[in-house]
Every structure is written in structure tokens, then in C-alpha cells.
DNA sequence: AAATTATGTCAACATAGCTGACATATTCGA
DNA sequence: TCGAATATGTCAGCTATGTTGACATAATTT
């Protein structure tokens, strides 16, 4: 606080919080679950991040390797749709992954304009190495839950996801 | 993450964890839940993002306003611990929020070095506006679940979070 | 009085998004 | 068959949000 000076030096007992709007604000915001989601996801991603740090890749690479591994033969357009990013964003990380031998491209058998993406053996290993700690964390969080409880969790997560758009509008900027 | 610089990441297949001699490869990676978490969180954050877009703030501002609103009187150090970012990262967004009248600082009543953070009325409104759609989404995902089901979901999310560090080590760079 | 702590700030840099514009190959439709 | 549309690539530059390192100031602790 060097130069700016005057920072409310007065120890007043907290800005009057007293005047709650209180109108028909019976809205109960679920702050608890909002925060649980924030912290859960933050820690969930910290696992692979630690591994990626040692390999020179980032979270963006992780996502690409993951989905290509999960759905070999994916087209670039489909990957963009899944990640909901622009092709220019994808281009950088995809190029690095291809150049480093984690992913290969094959011209589409029917539509040769397409570049279908496949993981190499190395790509598969990386995807697995990154997924492993996340899967362990999930298994740990599932500890003590029966199959029904797990189904409830999955239903909740599914319910958090936007319904798939059938629209297929342009996103290729 | 990463100051690693060098494009073309080292092709080594990630620490000791990766090679797996395929011996007891009974590992079942829970790709399903991994992806559910990815999509759920992506869509979960897209709600406030849309609002923030119109106000010139970003996701980082959202987090700060959220936690200050949730815990008025928070110290800067506590906020850094919660967000797990560096003070230099926080500085930018916090300054903007203070300058725009969303957050105020008050010298700590006991330790006057502290800058305790409080939301202004406007800050409270913003926090609420951002939380509202997220809370709605959560309520929607909870649809049809009884109290027990909701408790299971919360237990799962809690189980995903790292145990709190008691350590309190330096992070202030 | 000296050391430590809480916070702020300057400077430089990395990652991963974005828009806009344009190029190439391929496919499709009139 | 030719022109439009499509799938992809790429250049250039911008923004948001993280990082380190170094140093400043005020207040507290030892």
C-alpha cells in the first residue's frame, strides 16, 4: 500500500450488512454445491496438471489427447464441437501433439478433406497416464457408495450438462 | 503450471507411472465420470461467463467476488489460499473490482497490516447474479432426487476435494 | 532495534483462449 | 463441368489469467 495512501483506516465494525433487500427474495442460492463443484474440479484437474508439468504439455493438450484416445478417428470438426473452442486454438496444441508423435492424422476414407485423428501408442499411454490419477480420485470419492449411489452421482452430473445441440451451426470463424 | 518454455515437449512417456508392463492391467479407468465432470463443469461455468461478457469482467473476477461475498472480511492471504493463485495474479483483478466499486478494503481491526475484503452492495448484487443461473442448474440436476440422493452427491463432491492442508506454507512469491 | 509478516507493485513471461483474413483441397449441386 | 460450399490449415495480433523474481512499505513480533 505504498503510494495510494488512505485505505479506510477506520476500524468500523463491518460495512452495514443490515439492509438486506429481503423483498420477495426467497431465492435460496445453493452456494454450498457451487463451491463443492469449484473445489472438486480444481483438485480433479490438479492431478494431471502435475504430470503435464514434467512433459511440457498443458491442460489443452490433455483434453485433445483424451478425446482422440476415447474416440479414435475423430474429425477435427467433431473435436472442435466437443471442446467448444476455435480451430485456431486447437491448431497450436494439435500441431505440437502431431509433431511429437502422440497423434496422427489420416485422410477420411469417404471424405478426403477430413483429417481423422488417431492416437499413437505413445498417445494412448499419455492419455492413460493422465486419466489414471483422476480415475483413482473418483474411485476414492465413490468409496462406500453402492451402485445406486454411484448412479445418482452420474445422473446429477449428466443433469448439469447442456442438452446436445442438434443445430450444427458454424463455429469455424 | 509450467514455465517450461520449449515447444516440442520431451517425448519421454511421463514418470514411472506410465510404462505398465501390462502385467495386471485390470485397471478400469473411469472415463465415463471423467468426461461427465469435464462437460458438467464446462457448462456450469458457461452460465456466469455469459453475464460476465457483458460487464467486462472475467472468470477470475467472478471467483473473487464470489468468495468475498461468501466470507466478508476475508483477508487477502486467505483469499489467495482459497483460490490457490499468486498475489500478483490476484492483484490485477482485485484492483479492478475495487476501482469499479464492487469490493472495499478495510484495515484489520486487530492486525492493521491486513486488508479485509468486503463486498459493496453492488458487489453483492453481482455475486448473486452470477450465482443464480448456477444454482438453477444445480437445482435442475437435483430434480427428482430425495434428500438422501442429494446428500450422496455432496458426499461425492466432497470426496473429490483434497484434504485441507494444515501446513500454511509460503505462497507469496 | 531488528526481523518477520501482510500487502502492494513493477517487469517480464507462458498458456490458451479469441477474431479476422486468407489459402488449399475436396466435394457437392445446379 | 464449373462454381459454391465445406474441411482444414495458417498467419497475425489481441486478451485473460496464470507464473517468477525482485523490491517497497507499514505494522507486528521478538
UniProtKB/TrEMBL annotation, chains A, B:
Keywords: DNA-binding, Transcription, Transcription regulation. Residues 1-23 are annotated as: Disordered. It holds the Pfam family MarR_2. GO terms for molecular function: DNA binding; DNA-binding transcription factor activity. The keyword Transferase does not apply. It comes from the Bacteria. The keyword Transmembrane does not apply. One of its GO terms (biological process) is response to stress. Residues 30-162 form the HTH marR-type domain. This is MarR family transcriptional regulator. It comes from Hoeflea olei.
